[in-house]
Amino acid sequence: MANSLLEQLPEIVREGRKQAEKILESLEGRHRVSLQTREWVLPSKDTRDSDWIAAANRQAHLSEEDTADWTNRLIYGDNLLAMAALLAGDEHTPSLRGKVDLIYIDPPFDSKADYRTKVSLPGVELEQRPTVIEQFAYSDTWSDGTASYLAMITPRLILMRELLSETGSIYVHLDWHVGHYVKLVMDEVFGKDNFVNEICWWYKRWSAAASTFQRMHDTIYFYRKSEKYKFNQLFQPLATSTASVHGNTRRINVPDDTGKLITVRTDEPSKGVQMHDVWEVPFVVAHSQEQVGYATQKPIELVARILEASSDPGDLVADFFGGSGSFAAAAEGRRVEKHGNTSVYTNSASRRWIVTDLGKPACMIMRKRLIDQGAKPFLYQAIGDYQVEAAKSAMGRSFRVGDLSGIVLSLYGAQPLDPDDSPLRNLGKVVYAGKKTLVLVDSPNKLTGAATLRKAITQREQLLGGWDRVVVLGWNFEPSIGQSITVLNDSRLEVLVIPPDLLDRLRKKGGIEKLRGQVRFSSLQYLTIKPVRRTRSGEEETLQVTLDNYVLLSPEAINLDDDNRKKLLKVANAEPLALIEYWAVDPDYDGEVFRSVWQDYRGNSANDNDPLRVITAAEFSVPRKAGERRVCVRVVDVFGFEAEVVQVVAGTGAEA
């Protein structure tokens, strides 16, 4: 008979500690995990703002990235790796070990729900099934059920404790599925004596429950790091009936004949009563102004109470299961309007924040939401060397890149070349119908670009007497890869994308043999723009950037059923630009960090009233610059795939 969860729990915690300790030991190593900045976002949602002073201020801010005390961070990737990078620190930010003042997490509830993403396009609505990597975080389909869930959460809670300051606190938001088990883990990680409160979030969400009482609350576990934890007492208003009777009153001792305490009316406003541990906060319903279309969205008022209670303005706060971005939105300091008698407890000044999520849809929703509310500039980052770190996690720390190349070659159906001909173990061959194809697997440590393609063509012509064609398989690509392929114009060269969730699938399926024949290597998506127009006007100049075409990453790489795939192809062929969810422009791209000073996205009412399309032309002012400009345009499609194009634009007039 299998052991019960309570019997398995000590071993789960022991293994979680070992995993966390290995990560902590690696922080000082040469190959520690790092973060790569994919975009530096300066929210500017209104294209009609042509004030050159505002533009100049945005431009001046571009140079502050390396010297600013702090820039908020939205991080895409596994939060275990993100926390490892934050603990390790980098050249721009020292280690955050013991520096985070408050952590709130709203992890998946082990509900076995299948969180499918609904994608609305002109004329159709698609249903995208989660990728395997997102299923790990959202669909909760672990092979060992709740035991695997606890094995996932335990090392993460340990790293969160390492990040917390001595005055810090953590709030973990769960429901009846696993809350009681996770509390036992938290007692082990944070100490039973450091448990502060069990908060009940009560909401009205009617459902037809025939054989049970209706489930209308979640549970939030509040733990401190130490006895020195920060706590700001919150108050809630008196009930309407009580307030109407008593008004603003207080009891004082009045010297009358009896000497008793009597109640007299004063001009002092009442703070109300100390907030209790049952919070009635309205659920985010479909027609709510807060609604951003995310299945597990939490109301800003809920997380704002937590921010006010356990942090102060300017404190560093973090959410490692970002979801819809309510935590970051509240941390920005935006005050929510009161509705009727509903009390709103949100911070009046902003906090510094870090938010992470493993889902691309979640990161896109958060990025749009923050831009829409006019957030301060923030970094959009990803895990550096993500595939290498994932491989080490799946295959052991002794893993070498050559091992991964061999796996990729095998799954593509290629035989590896002899080590003498392939010292990096990244070359293979496919021989079919008398034709020989050379296969090159690029390293996950680098961006596949023009140099790799030229090298592949040279090897095709010279290695072992020559080959009929060459296929390059890459993990990550230079922004200009589409242009590089166009310039080479080589019909005997093919560039394909290695599935980004390959390692997770290997771990889930249990090895290469079970995946053989199931892995699809997809073609690249690419973007084209029309010639950028640059017009000088005094001390500023106007840039006009127009989208031309977008070719989607192979639909085979998107987790759709046949019917939905047909619908997608129909839209992609008729109106390819309708597939774009978000696009941004960097007028002076340095080839490393994309700094977006103009953005548009579906649903941006400042630009148009079409919720299913972005505008396809941008016109905005920037400070005048002598000489050429390197204009970079980045798009993200409705499935979260990114593409970029760079165009060098000559100077205007005498400055050209």
UniProtKB/TrEMBL annotation:
Q: Which residues form the DNA methylase N-4/N-6 domain?
A: 100-332
- Tell me one Pfam family matched here: N6_N4_Mtase
Recorded catalytic reaction(s): these are: a 2'-deoxyadenosine in DNA + S-adenosyl-L-methionine = an N(6)-methyl-2'-deoxyadenosine in DNA + S-adenosyl-L-homocysteine + H(+)
Q: Name one GO molecular function term.
A: methyltransferase activity
Question: Could you name the domain of life of the organism this protein comes from?
Answer: Bacteria
Q: Which InterPro entries match?
A: DNA_methylase_N4/N6, DNA_methylase_N6_adenine_CS, N4/N6-MTase_EcoPI_Mod-like, SAM-dependent_MTases_sf
Q: Does the keyword Transferase apply?
A: yes
EC no. given is 2.1.1.72
Enzymatic class: transferase
What does the UniProt keyword field contain?
Methyltransferase, S-adenosyl-L-methionine, Transferase
The Gene Ontology biological process terms listed for this entry are: methylation
Please give the family membership noted in the entry: Belongs to the N(4)/N(6)-methyltransferase family.
Q: What is this protein called?
A: site-specific DNA-methyltransferase (adenine-specific)
The protein's organism comes out as Rhodanobacter ginsenosidimutans
What does the record give as the organism's lineage?
Bacteria, Pseudomonadati, Pseudomonadota, Gammaproteobacteria, Lysobacterales
